[in-house]
Design a protein that fits this description.
The chain is α+β, with helices and mostly antiparallel strands. The chain folds into 2 domains: 75 residues; 163 residues, no CATH class. It has 5 helices and 10 strands; from the N terminus they run H-H-E-E-H-E-E-E-E-H-E-H-E-E-E. Strands 1-6-7-3-4-5 form a 6-stranded mixed beta sheet. A hairpin with a 5-residue loop joins strand 8 and strand 9. The radius of gyration is 50 Å and the shape is rod-shaped. It starts with a helix and ends in a 5-residue tail after the last strand.
């Protein structure tokens, strides 16, 4: 009996110890949940509002960046439009009038060519050199290629023209576009500068420094153009201007004095 009583008493003690352990475990779990609940309760709930605003800020920023990228393109177009008139104002004015070399040039190849309009020529090579030497006209050649725009002025020397590079050219220029006068000028230029033969654009230009001679020439030219006359205007060393109609028209020859005698 004593042994049974002892076993029963031991079992009761073990049950009490187990119950005490369970209560302690439950208490610990309760404390842990209380701590977690207090932590969760203290966390702010404003993060979702910030994330919802960010896409709006990004979408608002995109058009601003696009506008900044487009502005330089518009400015570049406006700048090119503003620069073009300035460049055109600085360029010399070139009047186009065809020319034939007179006395010294054979005209066999030009007989079959139908001649039109008014042509400028000098009565002879000596008249041309005399006009340049007297300071009544100036002769220029222009050679232009990609990246190059060169001007040369001709000076009389030993019965010929010697072309030298120049940067200063008059604003009012007359271009000799055809004929033996033009070929003679370019041949003198090529003798001094053989490399210019390869330039695709080559011009022969004349500038009047004698204002009276220029005025008489322009007046005569405008008169003939107004009545539709076609022919050759020849300039002499003393300033005389002589007109000769083409053979296709009725023969007409008249003289005009110009410049200092």
């Amino acid at each position: 009996m004593d042994n049974l009583a002892l076993l029963t008493q031991d079992n009761l003690q073990e049950d009490q110890v187990l119950e005490t352990d369970i209560m302690r475990f439950v208490a610990i779990i309760g404390i842990v949940f209380w701590i977690l609940f207090s932590i969760v309760k203290s966390i702010p709930f404003q993060a979702p509002e910030q994330s919802s605003l960010q896409p709006q800020a990004i979408s608002n920023a995109i058009p601003i960046e696009n506008e900044k990228q487009l502005e330089p393109k518009n400015e570049s177009k406006n700048n090119t439009k503003d620069r073009e008139p300035v460049r055109q104002r600085n360029e010399p004015k070139e009047n186009s009038i065809e020319s034939l070399n007179p006395i010294n040039a054979p005209q066999s190849s030009e007989k079959n060519v139908k001649q039109r309009g008014l042509q400028l020529q000098f009565n002879s090579r000596d008249d041309l050199l005399a006009l340049i030497h007297a300071g009544k006209i100036r002769a220029f050649c222009r050679a232009k290629a990609t990246g190059f725009d060169l001007h040369f002025e001709g000076f009389p020397k030993d019965g010929n023209l010697n072309f030298k590079g120049t940067a200063a050219i008059p604003q009012e220029l007359w271009e000799i576009k055809h004929g033996q006068d033009r070929e003679w000028f370019l041949s003198r230029l090529d003798d001094a500068n053989p490399s210019l033969k390869a330039f695709p654009i080559r011009q022969v230009l004349i500038a009047f420094t004698d204002k009276k001679l220029e005025s008489n020439f322009v007046e005569r030219l405008e008169t003939l153009e107004s009545i539709g006359t076609q022919g050759i205007l020849s300039i002499y060393s003393k300033g005389k201007i002589r007109f000769k109609a083409y053979k296709t028209e009725s023969k007409n020859t008249s003289d005009t004095d110009g410049g200092a005698q």
